[in-house]
User: Fold these one by one.
Assistant:
Number 1:
Amino acid sequence: MNRKYLLFLSITILMVSIIACGQKEEPKVEYNTKTFKKSFEADSIGLVEFNFEIIEIDKAPTPAAKDSINKYLSLFYNASVTGEYEVNSVETLFDSTLADFKRELPSAIEMGFPYNIGVDRSILVVLNNHNLFTYSTTGYQFTGGAHGMTYLINYNFDAVSGEQISLDQLFNPGYHETVRRHAEKYFRSKNNLMPNEDLNAAGFWFENNKYEINDNFLIGKDSLSFLYNQYEIAAYAYGQFEVKIPYNDIKDIINKDGALKFVFEK
């Protein structure tokens, strides 16, 4: 190997190292995951069962962001099941729910019907880059009756400030009708509805028979999605509805200085 080649190789390695050092790695939210599973079985007629998948924020680009995101995570995990009480951990939530269960169980036994409480809660992190941290919470709750309820709520955070992001921050003024129109197109296609087919006649509950977007949206990698929970726009049996709008469809109304500016960096 001649000296000129060695010199060239050394300079190349040095330049690559300098460039790599000069590039700052994008800060991300760091979190840990754990599970909480606990149950209590009184007898064949009564059962309390918790099944939680929990994430906790260990580190964020700023302390404010860490505190803010953890606060909302805590509100989800510790939300009351059977009472109006406030708790600060899933352990005390289980204990409080169990106390209510034991108080109501004698009446259930006397009436001869089963009394079960089941609670499942989990979180799916969808985006953790571009200074964004977005996730979907999924909760299932059964406290008696004909069926349980499943609900999904989306959260979109600025990973630096810790503030929740609104639709108004994503788009230029006057965006609503354009987003609504694109969302309706995908909603109708996904549910096999013709462009002019009557929504209410098809079993949906939109006010004034007009499709509308809601605030339960999620910033994803390639699309913006809207989620409608059970009983929100249709009967329980219809389940949940998700509508995804590719960013390319609405690129001309995206605020280039807002949270979706990464769309223009591709």
Number 2:
Amino acid sequence: MTASNENLASIMSAFEKLRILVVGDLMADKYVYGNAERLSPEAAVPVVKVKKEEYRLGGAANVAHNAKQLGATVLLCGVVGYDDAAHMFRKAVREAGIESGGIFPSSDRSTTLKVRVVALPYNQQIVRYDYESRRQLSENETPTVKRYIESNIDQIDAILISDYDKGMLLGDALPRFIIDLARHKNVPTIVHSKQRRFRLFANATAIILGYYDAQDFVHVVSGNFFTSIAAICEQLVKALECDAVLVMREDQELGLCTRDGVQKTFEVGVENKFNPAGAQDAVCSTFALALAGGASPENAAILASRAMKVVLSKEGTATITIGELH
């Protein structure tokens, strides 16, 4: 049965009552906008006359920002460096209204920063350069993160793990700790991972994956090369022993499969599509909030597909508001 708009509206109205913990790889996105009117005499590259600069939250922080924009109270947990990017990042987190007590500084890494140079007036990205460390958390950092999660587990409605393969969730210690603790406390855990080591997140409530990573993983574990998003989802539920799997096929469709046999695909049609940065983050936060509020995986996926459509129509690392989702 297809969900009615009234049912979906009821699910969304519960978002503001939820308290969500987002754990993962924290990033800052910097956009440099300017006019590119001539080529440099030094090399065959455009000279950009800078007009403005913007800082936005990226990675797990953008997932948290989406959840906050959708009405939830959001706690953010991750690691940054001791640098200017960390200062700007913390400022952006505070301005977004996200609780930042779980953001810990590390002297052994730089804050992940992605700088995009965009040429006006057509918003054409010319180049992107990244500052990052993909080092695994140290023996001193991991217990600090664990203590923060443990101290908040009884006051949250769900945990959203956002893994961008930047080191926060390398190794099995932290992923298994989070999932086992959440299962013990009966707190839903929703995982979005870009890695191909998905077994680390087995037995989570729900896992959200990109199509090609999911396809490769299923090929390795089953020996079969599936192209159907429904077949890939079905194999993932069995292999990872989770309650639900949601697979995102670029900007085209979402596929859902649940442990109890629900299989659905949701087409995402966008007339004026921009850079898809942030679309997956909107899907993750919307899907997680809906599940945390008691929605079925199917209804959560319907809302996630609508969120994806909205964000794909925006430029840059965008978020979705509760008004736009309505």
Number 3:
Amino acid sequence: MPEPAETVSRHPRDDVAGLFDLTGRVAVVTGATRGLGLAIATGFAHSGAELVVVSRKAEACEEVVASLRSEGANAIACACHVGNWESIDGLVDRVYREFGRVDVLVNNAGISPIYDKPSDVSEALFDKVIAVNLKGPFRLAALVGERMLAGRGGSIVNVSSIGAVRPTRDIIPYAAAKAGMNAMTVALADALGPRVRVNALMPGPFLTSIARQWDMNRFAERARTFPLRRAGLAEEIVGAAIYLASDASSYTTGTVLTVDGGAQWSMPGAGDAKPDL
């Protein structure tokens, strides 16, 4: 049997809290200035990680870093357009200059522009959605994952969406990209094992900034069919993210973990919205 990766045995197995401890680990989180990315970055910092806050806007990154530092965290800001491979190359070079390693990478940045009908999606828009949601995460995972593999190992967490498995007419390019991310997660787990674990989170509807685009009355009717009858709050993604980033998931790789309140299984007529018989 092969020797276990170094990241597997940092805590004795009778120390349950220690399994989730990220103290001293360097974590890169993209799309970390709002929504789920901000919640994940903050949760990681509270678990002891050193943070690299990545987003397209430098000012937003600096604001998050200032907040994390005020709470005692070690964090730096790195502005990067994750849909651009040249920018990603520069990001990776800078992080390794600053910290010498990456222990956790979270590919969270994503976009899902609004359109009226499929034919309204231009080639430029389609390419942008694929670049940010799939092409960029692939490049970042490939560069960081290979360095992890050559070093002390690590964990890569891709943030997908239940749109990958329950696509709707208003998110076709986004859903296609996220379905590709799910497949990429499994393939990278194979490519980078055994020292690097690669998993994905597959969130359902969360009340983040994207919810501003929703028709909340229509959503409320749909949410009545969910087992948990509601959308998620951003902080409710943190436990799952820490699990996949930490030693608690030391035998978990190539997994797509759904965090959606049961939304992907909801059907018309289910839950509280079912008709009276």
